[in-house]
Amino acid sequence: MTTASTARVGVESVAAGSAPAWAARTTGLRKVYGSTVAVDRVDLAVPHGAVLGMLGPNGSGKTTTIRMLLGLVTPTEGAVELLGQPLPGGAERALPHVGALVEGPGFHPFLSGRENLRRAASAEPLLATGSIRSAVQTALDRVGLAGAADRRYRGYSLGMKQRLGLAAALLVPRKLIVLDEPTNGLDPAGTREIRQVIADLHAAGTTVVVSSHLLAEVEATCTHVAVLRRGTVVAQGALADLLQAGTPALLVSTPQVTEALNALRAARVSARQVADGVRVELIGTTAPAVLATLVHAGVEVHEARRHRDGLEDVFARLTESETTDRSTVDTVEEEQR
């Protein structure tokens, strides 16, 4: 355990140094529990200022990767770099600039939310003692907990506990925020509020890593995505690039579905029936050529629009062969905690 003064020296050295190439990076990261491989050769790169969504089925290694990234779990093999500092050696210099909510918050049940935050704030090397009161109030306001701040933590709902955990991560300005399932237990209004918090952090230049099962939320808030499957990264990069990598298609609205399919297949164009018409894969052809084929065949075309797969489609394609036997990994990981 380091003293606050020692940690502040490390903080100042990070702030004064040149900016590293990545906010966080892992190389050949591997974690083995007995005979079970939870994470296998993960190479992850998180650009500065990005909002990266970490996706994967249950047991794909997301939480274990996050815990190794934060120095909470020691890798079996591989290297971790956080804000330009290698872990574990550079933890004192990097971690004060990192806020995290991992696997739900842990607070004292008989203390109020405000009292719990004050205790957390007193351990922050970046926070002067005289600023604790205002920092706690600001964090409570930011996550919508001001009205319940003086209630005991043990009486909080799951969503309120998540909010308090997020407030603890936001007590001081951070360079990196890591959130593991931050909307767990929240109602739709709470989910929208968390989305706004992430958007505000992004606008301020903070790097955010979010692990989530809510693909619509990831698509709405993230700039980058990393998809894990069976303990390894199967795709990562800018979200826009990942979505653009899907096969483009043309959705044609027509009452003459059979005639449209026959005409397109005769022209060797891949197509299938969908609601209100046909979906045409634009492989080796173009939208104008498809429409010309249909019109020439006398097919009524009421509407035509370009379509690309959403994140849900891309995620399903990347993880479709994932099996349910990863429950063994979940069990082993839980035992190790």
TrEMBL record:
Start and end residues of each ABC transporter domain: 24-255
InterPro entries per the UniProt record, alphabetical: AAA+_ATPase, ABC_transporter-like_ATP-bd, ABC_transporter-like_CS, P-loop_NTPase
Signal peptide: none
Stored SUPFAM superfamilies: P-loop containing nucleoside triphosphate hydrolases
GO MF annotation list: ATP binding; ATP hydrolysis activity
Keyword Transport belongs to the record: yes
Family from the record: Belongs to the ABC transporter superfamily.
Protein's name in the database: ABC-2 type transport system ATP-binding protein
Source species of the chain: Goodfellowiella coeruleoviolacea
